[in-house]
């Protein structure tokens, strides 16, 4: 007699607000090894992805006794009316509305683990959500949570792709669930809608072009990609918004994922002027804060340029004196796009004081653009 059944786990999971549970074999990822090597060789992986292929496919590196992987999915498809404002705004991905999902999912998984441990002796578990190198979507696929869409996301028939995924590695065997075949058919809406052509071919995402990754990338963003960011401050939902399976996906009542201080369309000027304390209050509770304030403000500066927002000029001028060299460089870049020659002297003054090489280069490029001639990198 088993100490616990898959159905008992599913029933308890539903009670604590977990929408889907699936079971996979720990070696389910071994078949992905070759595909990962190919991706790496084609240069489709980005800097935030784990480069060690073995770490990505080996749950036993985390729990040596692992016998099954329990995958959970929690929908964040809350019913929320986005209020449009007349002021200039930046867009926050739906995945970052409300409380940081890492925290929410971790709590639910810990409860589920405790429930299993209360029924079965000598059970060991490790709860994971996004903070590990394992191929999360592939595990969810093998656990039958959903099927792969051409946009590279896991799509569930009932909840669409607006689902957060988490895994519990466990030293107890459960019969694996069956993977599901793709249902995209002839649809190519996500490929057509992607602003950067990051869906290199169906199911293959070039993460170096994908704005979900670009918006959290450190440092300078290639200008032609920055232009495609539009108003995006954190993440990108475009390939999910157009997906027919999301249009008919079930809505959920989940107050933790309803936006609070950080709005889905957040005022750009408020972001540009944010102090450290304000950043902690507005962005801190959400999942968009992990890369820090400078990355969010950099994206807001880019959004101001992309929307030609003149009301952003004053706050951007203040950022020429920011403590962050990235923001000093970006403010010069933005001013060269939003202003005429009247701004020259302010950028020249900033350049005289600048010590950081990247910021200096961006200031010189900004001056060149405004003057229409070349100056040498010999100031300061
Ligand atoms: S998240 Fe945005 S940039 Fe990335 S593939 Fe989807 S539409 Fe393209
Ligand atoms: S938009 Fe169409 S092609 Fe893309 S994932 Fe959805 S169903 Fe598949």
TrEMBL record:
<keyword id="KW-0671">Queuosine biosynthesis</keyword>
<dbReference type="InterPro" id="IPR017896">
    <property type="entry name" value="4Fe4S_Fe-S-bd"/>
</dbReference>
<keyword id="KW-0479">Metal-binding</keyword>
<dbReference type="GO" id="GO:0008616">
    <property type="term" value="P:tRNA queuosine(34) biosynthetic process"/>
</dbReference>
<dbReference type="InterPro" id="IPR011989">
    <property type="entry name" value="ARM-like"/>
</dbReference>
<dbReference type="Pfam" id="PF08331">
    <property type="entry name" value="QueG_DUF1730"/>
</dbReference>
<keyword id="KW-0963">Cytoplasm</keyword>
<dbReference type="Pfam" id="PF13484">
    <property type="entry name" value="Fer4_16"/>
</dbReference>
<dbReference type="InterPro" id="IPR017900">
    <property type="entry name" value="4Fe4S_Fe_S_CS"/>
</dbReference>
<keyword id="KW-0004">4Fe-4S</keyword>
<dbReference type="InterPro" id="IPR016024">
    <property type="entry name" value="ARM-type_fold"/>
</dbReference>
<dbReference type="InterPro" id="IPR004453">
    <property type="entry name" value="QueG"/>
</dbReference>
<feature type="domain" description="4Fe-4S ferredoxin-type">
    <location>
        <begin position="174"/>
        <end position="204"/>
    </location>
</feature>
<protein>
    <submittedName>
        <fullName>Epoxyqueuosine reductase QueG</fullName>
        <ecNumber>1.1.-.-</ecNumber>
    </submittedName>
</protein>
<dbReference type="GO" id="GO:0052693">
    <property type="term" value="F:epoxyqueuosine reductase activity"/>
</dbReference>
<keyword id="KW-0819">tRNA processing</keyword>
<keyword id="KW-0560">Oxidoreductase</keyword>
<dbReference type="GO" id="GO:0046872">
    <property type="term" value="F:metal ion binding"/>
</dbReference>
<keyword id="KW-0408">Iron</keyword>
<dbReference type="GO" id="GO:0051539">
    <property type="term" value="F:4 iron, 4 sulfur cluster binding"/>
</dbReference>
<dbReference type="InterPro" id="IPR013542">
    <property type="entry name" value="QueG_DUF1730"/>
</dbReference>
<keyword id="KW-0411">Iron-sulfur</keyword>
